[in-house]
Specification:
Length: about 300
């Protein structure tokens, strides 16, 4: 009984490696088409495509499940599919193409944070607990019946990259538990609750702008959830844009919102409530650097934000 694996980014690639090493009978890989990467926009295979090639697994690259793709899946005699961040919405007739169906690994405790950016939205909202859910894909947006789930505590100072990597490991462990159940037909499906439904839409650059009228705690969560993409950012008045990759909130310092200076050896910015310590930043056109190194090259009086 063979399995199709569908995924695209680094998190999915790491999961594919782990599943194959643990003996999962994956015989076909589905991933998105090569895409332009970097400043030179060089067409590059997805991380999943690169891993599949290294593992000697056949790969289908597609951004839609066409009739030809379904025929290729049938020829491979696939029983069911595992999906981790494929980036393609599955619809009929693709949903009915596999005898046992398609199963998705989603990085939240459904029905909370359905959608494309559950890890980022969870961090931005200030959640302290999240988790991983395996569910059977249906025609809705992450609305299918739940196979299994596992909660996970969100660690202080964890950003989206760190949390996603950790949840990816949990997702593999959960899949290794449920794959035999799917193979045997003994899975128990539970409908999702109709309560506490929330949507995790992709974070836009506009949403990631730091508004220093807000509390420092709110802005710290925004920095954590936006790292690395799209990247929290602000305007340095008279200078240009500044990305903020790491920051910590502090209860109180006598600073006006947007006022930035060194306090007790820390680069602090005043907020509507408390102050935000900048730790790692990236000025426009430059590489990432410590906030202290950035501030040393600026005038004595520095104001941040479009709202000050």
């Amino acid at each position: 009984m063979t399995i199709l694996f569908a995924g695209t980014p680094e998190t999915a690639a790491e999961s594919l490696i782990s599943l194959v090493r643990q003996g999962a009978p994956i015989s076909l890989v589905l991933t998105r088409l090569d895409a332009p990467v970097g400043r030179k926009r060089v067409s590059t295979p997805s991380p999943v495509a690169q891993v599949a090639l290294a593992l000697g697994l056949p790969v289908i690259k597609t951004n839609s499940i066409s009739t030809q793709v379904i025929e290729a899946i049938h020829e491979a005699k696939i029983s069911f599919g595992l999906v981790i961040a494929y980036g393609v919405i599955l619809r009929e007739p693709a949903l009915s193409a596999l005898p046992k169906g398609w199963f998705n690994v989603h990085f939240s405790l459904l029905p909370k944070w359905r959608g494309a950016a559950p890890v980022q939205r969870s961090l931005i909202a200030g959640d302290t607990v999240t988790g991983v859910t395996v569910f059977k894909i249906d025609a809705g947006l992450d609305t299918g019946d739940i196979v299994a789930s596992v909660p996970a505590q969100i660690e202080p100072n964890e950003n989206a990259t760190d949390l996603l990597r950790r949840l990816g490991g949990l997702g593999v462990s959960l899949l290794l538990e449920v794959i035999p159940q799917i193979q045997s037909g003994l899975i128990r499906l539970s409908p999702q609750s109709k309560d506490e439904v929330s949507i995790a839409s992709k974070i836009s650059r506009a949403e990631a702008e730091l508004n220093f009228q807000h509390s420092a705690a709110t802005l710290e969560n925004l920095v954590r959830g936006s790292n690395p993409e799209p990247g929290a950012w602000t305007k340095v008045q008279g200078v240009g844009d500044l990305k903020v990759f790491e920051a910590r909130s502090h209860p109180s310092f006598a600073l006006e919102p947007g006022q930035c200076c060194v306090v007790s050896g820390m680069v602090m910015v005043g907020c509507g409530q408390g102050s935000l310590e900048l730790l790692e930043v990236q000025p426009a056109g430059k590489t990432r650097m410590s906030a202290s190194a950035w501030l040393r090259g600026l005038p004595t009086k520095v104001l941040l934000g479009s709202d000050v």
